[in-house]
Amino acid sequence: MKTKRFLPILILILIFLIFKLTNLGIRLSDSNIYFYTGYQLLQGKVLYKDIFFTNFPLLPYISSLYFLLTAGNLNLFFLTPAIEVCSVSFIIYLITYKKNKEVFPALISSLLYLFSFIILSTSDHQSGVFIASLFSIIGYYFYLNKKYFFAGIFVSLMFLTKAYFLPIGLTFLAVFSWEKNIKKSLPFFLGAVIAGIIIMLPTIIFAFPDFIKDVFTYSITRSQGVEKSAIAWFFITHDFPLFVLLLSNIFMIKKYKFFGLLSIFGIIFFLFYKDVYFLYLNFLVPFLALSYPEFYKTVNKNFGIQKFIIPTVLFCFMFYSFVTYAAGFRNLQKINPDQAVTIIKKEHPKSLYGANDITPSLSYLSGTMLLNDVIDTNANIYRKGFLNSKKLTTDAINQKSILVTHGAYYPESGVNQEVTDEIFDKELVKKSCKLIGSFPVQTEGPENRLNLLRC
User: Fold this and answer.
1) Which has the closest alpha carbon to 87: 239, 282, 286?
2) What is the pLDDT of residue 302?
């Protein structure tokens, strides 16, 4: 491929990165858990044994690598997902161009990915989905180039980063079964097994019982969070072109097996896995973007429409997605932690206890330990009985900790709720703790404050 063929995608990537850089910042997010977990691993802690973690181990290892590469800079850590997204878009462009020998459809596929609403909104957070997407798309690239051993390696890395990318792995297996070609499947399995053993070996040696408890006892049986119908409707209304591609892939399954099977497995996963979130749908997006040229050729062949009609319609949808994100979601959950860190350092508490979407980073930035070394305080963990809100609240009070809570403050309606999280025993907090700091924040729910309470 001539160098000039890369210029359109490089310009597109540059635009995306500049846009993300202009609004870079720390947010209320699981990113803070992964950042702190990576940091703790570098301090000698053992995953699962010393650190409760509910997924496979590759993301914490990658977080440790990112911690080193960013020199422990939390702001730069929040930039890493945007870089991962750009890498995925480049591979999408490369695959599409090599297959069609045309710049324009390759660029449209990359545009569909980069400027879809789901990518714009979720790439503000380091959740692991984009490095998993990168592994999956590299695996697909090797699959197309008949490098099945390497395809297996990257699909294994994908799964060990985010287990809910399972539909992609199942799609590879189903395609191999459909084609009945053992020469393809054996190297694929070999690569996947070797990569899996290497990544899992430290866990198997040092923390296997804890791994089983954290990942299988907890994660597989956890209760449903967000209502699925709301997630589906949000996806359809905010990324309608991707939804159309999802359905069209199923109708074209005989001609395009991989895309059709992935769409089917993706829908099955969404319907039957209990605790699904909007973020999880990212596993589909790179492949939906890749399927665009096939969709375009099929529509053009059957209906003979003017060649710029579909791209023009897509541009309108992408512009709508961009405006929707920029106007209402760009600053969602964004917060400047400096004031909170200053207060914590001034108070000099023995420990911090609070919401997992920011407390780990406040601990790191202020040099204050977390209560009982508990990093993840997701409410589901309490519901499953792994943690107890009364016990931890009592421990926090006894240690004269600072609590980090979400709150709701609407003076025009007479609402001033300092603690909305269920990870606290609110009656104990009310008796023993007082507000020492309150900061505005835009969240997805009714909470609009981040509060610090000293016990």
Assistant:
1) 286
2) 77
Q: How many CA atoms lie within 13 A of 81 on its CB side?
A: 28
Write the pLDDT tens digit of every residue in 81-125. Answer: 999 999 999 999 999 999 988 899 999 999 999 999 999 999 999
Q: CA 235 to CA 209: how far, in whole Å?
A: 38
Q: Do residues 221 and 271 lie in contact, with contact meaning Cβ atoms separated by under 8 Å?
A: no
Check if the beta carbon of residue 429 is closer than 8 Å to that of residue 452. Answer: no
The string of DSSP codes covering 406-453 is EEEEEGGGTEEES---TTS-HHHHHHH-EEEEEEE---SSS--EEEEE
Pairing between β-strand 415-417 and β-strand 402-410 as defined by DSSP bridges: antiparallel
Q: Tell me the pairing of strands 369-370 and 351-354.
A: parallel
Q: What span, in angstroms and rounded, lies between the C-alpha atoms of 287 and 249?
A: 10
3 state DSSP class of 276: coil
Residue 247, CA distances (Å) to 175, 250, 297, 301, 317 in order: 19, 5, 16, 18, 17
Q: Is 151 exposed, middle or buried (0-12, 13-18, 19+ CB in 10 A)?
A: buried
